[in-house]
Specification:
Layout (H helix, E strand, L loop, with lengths): L3 E3 L2 E3 L2 H66 L5 E2 L2 E2 L3 H9 L5 E7 L5 E6 L4 H6 L8 E7 L6 E7 L5 E8 L8 H4 L7 E2 L3 E2 L6 E8 L6 E7 L1 H9 L7 E5 L5 E4 L19 H10 L1 E5 L3 E2 L3 E4 L2 E3 L1 H13 L2 E5 L4 H9 L5 E5 L10 E2 L4 E2 L2 E5 L16 E5 L5 H7 L4 E5 L2 H9 L5 E5 H10 L6 E3 L4 H4 L4 E6 L4 H12 L3 H11 L30 E7 L2 E9 L9 E7 H4 L1 H28 L1 H18 L16
Parallel strand pairs: 16-20, 25-26, 25-27
Antiparallel strand pairs: 1-2, 3-4, 5-6, 5-13, 6-7, 7-8, 8-9, 10-12, 11-12, 12-13, 14-15, 14-32, 17-18, 18-19, 21-29, 22-29, 23-29, 24-27, 24-28, 30-31, 31-32
Length: 643
């Protein structure tokens, strides 16, 4: 092979030219084939994913419908069963009946009865979840647990009975209890002509979220109920995960999260807390008082709220730290509105009401702990308003306030010229401002920032230069303790005084974020991506290609109940790299194999060029003979090439 440089530029030998043209043509053909393969593989991957996600959505839809259908059907049949009650009392044979029903159905956590006299009877399916067995302190051989409650006032007892699979009683123990089924939503809302379904709430004995289906027995004050834990839904969604990187969400149209296949971060992470020194009297109180019931709101993040009925927030974590420091046993109670929680506290159904801003009403209901948190206030308006530094600037304007906010009475008293629009939640207050129904809303700054960030509300102006002393509104949060537990206040105050700075700082870093910055440790009340509720993904049953934090993703959305106006939504989020990885891997393999084949073929191409190159070279030699007039040296060479 020779390369000659002449005046006309770079020139190549005929063999190199033939080999190069052949290699170029082969490479172009291979690239076109690989490109077509990638295109069709990508299309096939997207179509396969779409089909799979449609199947997952349909499975989830069928699963949820089957839960409702089975629970409604079972509750209705059992409520009309003639032998549930015997002479107005709970039939002892109910254990075998309830056990037979739940034997092969892990979906049902418990079946129970509440009577008009306050008696309670519950059969728990210990195989419904690992949480049930662990929380109720059952051993592996236990299959069923019966919880009975009867008696009045100080004589009321809660009895736990542990049974094996053949309904043999293994052990029993009892403890004092003032649990009253007659004030629970599943009892008070039950009717004898239809099944009532509760919103998700925290089961008291299990301390895990779930829902109840209840119905009143005909001609009786007894109510039968069936419980289903939300853990079964989360487990089902996890089972739908076929790609390691796929995220599945079940949520409301507003973005509020119902369930997910992902484990919520940060729920169990608490700063270390060493036990504190207690007096003998305090120790005896903790040992004798049993489990203390603590209120938990559903919608005041990040202070006190719930995600899928799981208690979360700054005050919840703080109480758990105090429990670790003191040995107190806490049971959180949720599923109620704030006025209902107040009523429960007044009727001695709650031991701690939290968190509260002191006012003239609630300070008479119990004993206040020391303040555990100081919250700055903020006013939120639409953009373009003059800076608000005092609440008095809102006189003669409409102010949206959540109904559960204990400061409403203070605002009404101190600022009678403000028109107050009472709404249900902080998110409703912000939406009232955005919709023009209210000029502003007032709340604690962390609450407003959290709500705006997690519900992806823009076009809001925050006014945070308020002075609570000048505005005469309380900004110190406290625990309100039932008056029958004076020692409990002392214990709480002692624990609060011995909190270390690093513990408080860790809680602040976990629950309070700088405006505009996301905190990945916070369990979210909403879906984590605004694109899931954005107009760009409103088309259902379609795979949308979007960008999240600059990276390509695919999103699939479907309605759980397509016929309903405001149906819950099912969504799958997966990165483009994860979804298209098989296609890209096949393309990479094709490129590698093609390159290897070209390298192997190059020597053969060099040899295969000989039938073309050899006659041309011979022709060049004979041409030189003629050019030099050496006619006797000219020879005839036969060739298969016509030219």
């Amino acid at each position: 092979m020779t390369i000659q440089f002449q005046r006309k530029g770079l020139r190549f030998s005929i063999r190199l030219t033939v080999v190069g043209v052949f290699a170029l043509a082969t490479t172009l053909t291979a690239l076109i084939a690989i490109g077509l393969q990638y295109y069709f593989s990508r299309t096939m991957a997207i179509e396969t994913a779409l089909s799979k996600y449609q199947s997952n959505a349909e499975s989830t839809r069928s699963y949820l419908n089957s839960i409702d259908s089975n629970a409604f059907h079972l509750t209705r049949i059992l409520a009309k069963h003639p032998q549930i009650l015997k002479d107005g009392r709970i039939n002892p044979d109910s254990l075998s009946l309830f056990a037979d029903i739940m034997e092969n159905n892990r979906l049902f956590y418990a079946i129970y009865l509440g009577l008009g006299n306050g008696d309670f009877y519950e059969v728990v399916n210990l195989s419904s979840s690992n949480t049930a067995r662990r929380q109720l302190k059952a051993i592996p051989t236990d299959r069923w647990m019966v919880i009975r409650m009867s008696g009045e006032a100080d004589e009321r007892r809660r009895i736990f009975e542990y049974y094996t699979a053949d309904l043999t009683l293994r052990v029993t123990h009892s403890e004092p209890s003032d649990y009253d089924p007659r004030i629970r939503p599943w009892y008070t809302n039950a009717r004898d002509d239809t099944v009532f379904k509760t919103d998700p709430y925290l089961f008291q004995h299990l301390q895990a979220p779930g829902q109840s289906y209840s119905m009143r027995l005909p001609g009786s004050d007894a109510v039968l109920a069936v419980d289903i834990t939300l853990a079964s839904l989360a487990s089902f969604l996890k089972a739908q995960t076929t790609n390691n990187g796929s995220e599945i969400y079940l949520f409301k149209p507003s973005g509020e999260l119902i369930s997910s296949n992902l484990t919520q971060p940060g729920i169990e992470s608490l700063p270390y807390a060493a036990p504190i020194q207690l007096t003998e009297e305090e120790t005896r109180f903790i040992q004798s008082v049993g489990k203390l019931r603590v209120s938990n709101e559903l919608d005041w993040p990040p202070i006190d709220y719930a995600v899928s009925a799981q208690p979360l927030g700054y005050s919840v974590d703080l109480l758990r730290i105090i429990a670790n420091m003191t040995g107190l046993q806490l049971e959180f109670v949720n599923g109620y509105s704030w006025p209902e929680l107040m009523n429960l506290f007044q009727s001695d159904e709650l031991d701690i009401l939290q968190p509260i801003f002191p006012n003239a009403t609630n300070t008479t209901l119990g004993k206040l702990s020391n303040s555990f948190l100081s919250l700055p206030y903020a006013v939120v308006t639409r953009p373009g308003q003059t800076a608000i530094t005092a609440i008095s600037q809102l006189n003669n304007k409409t102010l949206a306030l959540p109904a559960s906010w204990s400061v409403i009475d203070v605002v009404e008293k101190e600022y009678p010229d403000i028109n107050i629009l009472v709404v249900e939640t902080p998110i409703a207050a912000l939406n009232a401002v955005l919709d023009g129904k209210a000029f502003a809303t007032l709340d604690s700054a962390p609450v407003l920032h959290y709500t705006a960030d997690h519900y992806y509300l823009d076009e809001l102006q925050f006014h945070e230069k308020l002075d609570p002393k000048v505005d005469r509104i309380p900004n110190q949060l406290h625990f309100l303790v039932n008056s029958k537990h004076p020692l409990l206040v002392t214990i709480l105050n002692k624990a609060l005084s011995q909190l270390e700075e690093f513990q408080v700082e860790q809680l602040r870093q976990k629950w309070f974020v700088t405006p505009g910055k996301e905190n990945g440790r916070q369990p979210k009340t909403t879906v984590p991506y605004p694109q899931l509720i954005a107009p760009s993904t409103d088309i259902l049953n379609h795979l949308h290609e979007i960008r999240i934090i600059g990276q390509p993703y695919f999103v699939y959305k479907a309605a759980i109940n397509p016929d309903a106006y405001n149906s819950d939504l099912f969504a799958v989020v997966i990165s483009a790299g994860e979804l298209l990885a098989p296609s890209l891997n096949r393309v990479k393999i094709s490129v590698a194999i093609t390159t290897l084949c070209l390298i192997i073929l190059l020597p053969f191409i060099w040899l295969f060029a000989a039938p073309i190159v050899r006659p041309i070279k011979r022709l060049a030699i004979e041409n030189n003979h003629i050019k030099n007039r050496r006619y006797d040296d000219v020879e005839f060479h036969d060739s298969s090439i016509i030219e």
